[in-house]
Design goal:
Layout (H helix, E strand, L loop, with lengths): L2 H11 L4 E4 L6 H7 L6 E4 L3 H15 L3 E5 L3 H15 L4 E7 L24 E4 L6 H13 L5 E7 L25 H12 L4 E5 L1 H5 L3 H11 L3 E4 L13 E5 L5 H9 L2 E5 L18 E6 L13 E4 L2 H11 L7 H17 L10 H11 L5 E4 L3 H9 L8 E2 L10 H11 L5 E6 H5 L4 H7 L5 E6 L4 H11 L15 H7 L3 E4 L3 H13 L4 E6 L7 H4 L4
Parallel strand pairs: 1-2, 1-3, 3-4, 4-6, 5-6, 7-8, 7-10, 8-9, 10-11, 11-12, 13-14, 13-15, 15-16, 16-18, 17-18
Helix pairs in contact: 1-2, 1-5, 3-4, 3-14, 6-10, 8-10, 12-13, 12-19
């Protein structure tokens, strides 16, 4: 058996059943090892940037790691974008980079790149020095990627090792899957603060999703009776139709939400690092007593000083707190309803139903036609902020969007990864036209790989959030980065790649087109023209 075949065996034995990549001469031994197997699938992308974004979407929506395989140098560096995204989002994946052979390294071999190039975009970056260490390195890579705090692991394997015979040797069990539990005394301290609070708030971040702690969050919120605000990475960890769901902390948070947090006498923050987007440049005030639960000690005290800091996993911490506090009554449903209304009231003023639709108006129509149990993947860009604030997410792993890396072009690739991970689920990708053009080639991947994703592209023919800033802050003409004089026909583009497509301009047309696309057992695209003159969500909803 070749070492390449043994590598695939070890991935499969560790629960990895999907490998995303683009084949190259260096990776062909791995592709040969996958070919013909029914327990692992190779999904071939059209650009390496999409490869790691697809694996990210797979893991975000399933909780299971995927693997990626690329050639060294250009392939590896293209994939860095998605690796950094996964690193920032604590998303587990194993990135196999076929490395330059040791005897060639340092002599400008083809595609040669210093391995340390990838140190800052991965949780761990390891290059195997000898064939005898490859299988153990694969085991350790999966373990490291899936151990909290999770993240991407890059594993460099020199290309000459792969076609050779598998060396003799065994791989032992190296660790425990048990989550990090909170100290009993800090849980007691936190419970004391929460028990004395009259107007508490819960802030739930992506760490709740990563820990599979949504049920514990719901139980705690209901028992303690506190409104739940999520971060943009935590969106959906409590379904946004739940009466205690109060909104999303992001660049478009309304003043009413910020005011409530500022007036809360206790804030329980779980699984968040309070980054710049969550706190809107640290303008979010938390004068009340803060209980901060995170797996990273470096997060404690970085932006806010906690009264109690707990370095532990979200799941056992919420369970422990739930056992410490009695059933409470803080009138939280009324608070959450008021905070949600602060968003809806502003959005209603922009939704008139006349073409071209506003982004929130188009999103309402898309949400109405999208099944509650569907998975939705949102791209980055200006329209993503509208999505964060106005498009309800229905479950912990039913909504995907990039975190602080905020890379445009991730929406469609992540949706393809989500579809590969969840073949029986409906998957919808939401993208602005600027972001989709950065990954338009992946429509062909959807067709070639029979991944029935519905892509909804919001077309305003402008990098609108950039044009808006250029006009407001730098005195450039309106629409400086628009391309209305060179319009893009997304229907024709999609159809040329084997994807059925339609254009929808009114709310009714959008609802019908999206419903038809989701029902189809094939990839589809819906193009929705939107108003290029609409305000930016971050300005409009925040009252700037």
């Amino acid at each position: 058996m070749t070492l390449a075949a043994s590598v695939i065996d070890r991935l499969v034995a560790n629960g990895i059943d999907t490998v995303f990549g683009i084949p190259g001469k260096q990776t062909l031994p791995l592709n040969e090892a996958i070919d013909g197997r029914d327990d692992v699938r190779f999904v071939m992308a059209r650009h390496e940037t999409a490869v790691s974004q697809q694996a990210w979407g797979y893991a975000e929506t399933s909780g299971r790691p995927a693997a990626t395989v690329v050639v060294p140098g250009p392939g590896d560096m293209n994939a860095m974008n998605g690796l950094k995204n996964a690193y920032n989002d604590n998303t587990p994946l194993v990135h196999i980079a076929v490395e330059t052979d040791p005897e060639v390294r340092g002599r400008d071999g083809i595609h040669e790149t210093p391995p340390e190039t990838y140190d800052t975009v991965t949780k761990a970056n390891r290059v195997v020095k000898n064939p005898e260490g490859v299988l153990a390195a694969v085991e350790r890579a999966v373990e490291t990627a899936t151990t909290a705090p999770k993240g991407p692991v890059r594993l460099g394997i020199p290309k000459s090792y792969l076609p050779a015979a598998t060396p003799n040797g065994g791989v032992g069990d190296s660790g425990s899957d048990e989550p990090v539990r909170p100290p009993a005394d800090t849980v007691a301290d936190a419970a004391t603060i929460l028990a004395d609070a009259d107007a508490p708030a819960i802030v739930a971040g992506g760490g709740v999703r990563s820990a599979n702690a949504s049920e514990e969050l719901r139980e705690f919120a209901e028992r303690y009776d506190a409104p739940v605000l999520t971060t943009y990475k935590g969106k959906g960890v409590l379904p946004e139709t739940h009466p205690l769901s109060a909104g999303v902390l992001c660049g478009a948070t309304t003043p009413e939400i910020h005011e409530y947090v500022a007036e809360a006498d206790a804030v329980l923050a779980v699984g968040t690092d309070f980054d710049e987007l969550v706190t809107r440049g640290r303008t979010l005030e938390i004068p009340g007593e803060l209980i901060h639960v995170t797996l990273s000690p470096d997060d404690l005290g970085t932006n806010y000083d906690p009264a109690v800091g707990i370095v532990a996993d979200a799941k056992p911490t919420l369970a422990a707190l739930n056992g410490k506090l009695p059933i409470s009554d803080h009138d939280a449903a009324a608070v959450a309803d008021r905070l949600r209304a602060s968003v809806a009231r502003r959005v209603d003023e922009l939704v008139d139903g006349e073409p071209p639709l506003s982004s929130p108006g188009a999103l309402r129509a898309v949400r109405a036609a999208t099944p509650d149990d569907a998975i939705v993947a949102a791209d980055a860009g200006g329209f993503r902020i509208w999505t964060l604030a106005t498009f309800p997410a229905m479950g912990s792993r039913s909504y995907v969007n990039p975190g602080s890396w905020a890379t445009m072009g991730s929406g469609l690739p992540s949706a393809l990864g989500a579809q590969a991970a969840n073949p029986d689920s409906d998957v919808v990708a939401l993208a602005g036209d600027g972001g989709l053009m950065m990954a338009i080639h992946e429509l062909h991947t959807a067709a070639a790989e029979s991944l029935p994703v519905t892509t909804v592209v919001f077309r305003n023919e402008d990098y609108a959030i950039i044009s808006d800033g250029a006009e407001r802050d730098h005195g450039l003409p309106p629409g400086s980065y628009a391309w209305g004089d060179s319009p893009i026909d997304f229907v024709a583009l999609a159809e040329s790649m084997g994807v059925g497509a339609t254009r929808a301009a009114t709310p009714r047309e959008v609802r019908e087109a999206v419903a038809d696309a989701v029902d189809a057992d094939e990839p589809r695209l819906v193009e929705v023209p939107t108003d290029p003159a609409e305000p930016q969500a971050s300005d409009y909803l925040s009252g700037k």
